[in-house]
Amino acid sequence: MAGTMTRNTTVYYFLFLLTLPFTLSLTASNATADWLEEGDQFYFQTSLYTVHYSPKDEHNNKQNLINIELQKASQWLGGLALFKNSFGQSSQFAYVGYNWTIPYTQEFMYFKFVGGLMHGYDGEYKDKIPLNQAGVAPAVIPSIGVRYKRVQSEIALFGAAGAMWTIGFNFPITGE
What we know:
Residues 1-33 form the signal peptide. The protein is of the alpha+beta class.
């Protein structure tokens, strides 16, 4: 059963990665959708390092994060994250949020705050996140980041449990 779960998750992540460039090329190059505007961008991000403030043997520090985010020119954003939670369970987080550029950094540094619904904390770990009723819980994640051209890196805080360092690339929406 555990092998099947891992194999299915690997296939799922592989298919996601395989379809991502195609999806981005359809939407980002032409900006034909009414909801996409000049200045918007897609952001693809993955995890580099995770630390738990009170580490336990059962904690997983390899989240295998795959995150796709639409960042609007208005600084609003929305996204979907697929990852392994702190206990190795496949989890998802669908969210919306806002980006604030930190003054006097010439848009190099920013603060991001997102909130949404998290799924995937099951079984004996169901109570490890607050308000996890029916397997879905509200979550908020603040982060601080830096950007240079198309590369972004963030430190995201996940509650009182820990922090994750990420890196990603953005794909700007260009008009014709």
